[in-house]
Amino acid sequence: MAELRSRRSNLAVPGSNPRFLEKAKGLPADQVFLDLEDACAPLAKPGARKNIVAALNEGGWGEKIRTVRVNDWTTEWTFQDVLEVVGGAGANLDCIMLPKVQDAAQVKALDMLLTQIEKANGLEVGRIGIEAQIETAQGLINVNDIAFASQRIETIIFGPADFMASINMKSLVVGALHPDYPGDPFHYILMQILMAARARGVQAIDGPFLQVRDVPAFEEVAKRSAMLGFDGKWVLHPGQIDAANEIYAPSQEDYDHAELILDAYDWATSEAGGKKGSAMLGDEMIDEASRKMALVVAGKGRAAGMTRTSSFTPPE
C-alpha cells in the first residue's frame, strides 16, 4: 500500500456554489470533494463544472486532497463531467469520485477515459486516483471486484442514503441506528466494504450523517465505523469536521504507545537487542503481531500530522 494520505474528514462542497467552494479552502478538512452529482440540480451542472475548474486552478487548497464527484455512468453527464474537469484542471486534481458503482466494468471505463484525457493533455498517466462509492445492493455484491478493478482505486466509500433506498430499508434517518432493530443495521455493509478495501490495500470511508447540527449524534455514529477500522467519514457541515478529525485519528496515548512498540520491537530483533522474536515493553509482551497492529495506529497518526510525546530507551 502506498503511504497513507489522511482522509479523516471528507467535506462535500456543491460545485454550483462559488461561495462555498471558496470557503472550503480555509476549512480544516483532510479531503474536499467538489460535487457535480446530488448537490447540483441538472440545469446547474454545466455551470458547476466551470466553477470547479476555476476553483481548482486558482489554488489555495493547502495539503487537502482535491477530489471531484462526477455523475454516475447511467446518466448523460458523466463523460462531459470527466472531460471538462480533468481536461481543464487535471494538474490540480487528485481524484475522481464515481458514485453508484455497480460493477468493475464501470471503474475500468472511468480508468480508460482518464487515461485518454491525461494523454491528450500531457498529464502524467495514472496519477489521478478513483474513489468508488458503493450505494446499491448490486454494488455491494460486486465490491471485491470493484476494489481490484483499477490501480487508480484509492478509496471505497459507503453511500448510505441511496443504499437504504436500494434495499427498501424502512427508515428516513440516514446513517443512524433504528430503535426497531436490535443492533447496527449497517454493520454487515460496512464490514463488506472494509474487507474489500483492506484486501486491496486502500482506504475505507464511511458516508454522511444528515442531521448536520447534531454533532454528538454524528460522533456516536462515527465512533462505530472508526472502531471497525474505517479511515474517515464524509462531513456535510463545517461543524462536523473537528469531530471527524479527532475520532478517526488515534488518541495521543495510543499513538505514542504504537510508536514505542515499533521502536522496541525494532531494537529487540536487531543484533544489539539479541535478535529476539519477542520482547517486553514494560509489562507488555510484544511480537510481530504487535508490530503489525502498531504500524496501523502509527500510520494513521503520522498521516494526521501527530507528533510523539515519548521516546524509546533500550534497556541496559
Automatic annotation (TrEMBL):
Which keywords describe this protein according to UniProt? Lyase, Magnesium, Metal-binding
- Chain ranges of the HpcH/HpaI aldolase/citrate lyase domain: 9-238
What cofactors does the UniProt entry give for this protein? Mg(2+)
Binding-site positions, substrate: R69, E135
GO biological process, alphabetically ordered: oxaloacetate metabolic process
Q: Which residues bind Mg(2+)?
A: E135, D162
Record-level Gene Ontology MF annotations: lyase activity; magnesium ion binding
* Descriptive protein name: Citrate lyase subunit beta/citryl-CoA lyase
Give the source species: Blastococcus saxobsidens
Its lineage opens with: Bacteria, Bacillati, Actinomycetota, Actinomycetes, Geodermatophilales
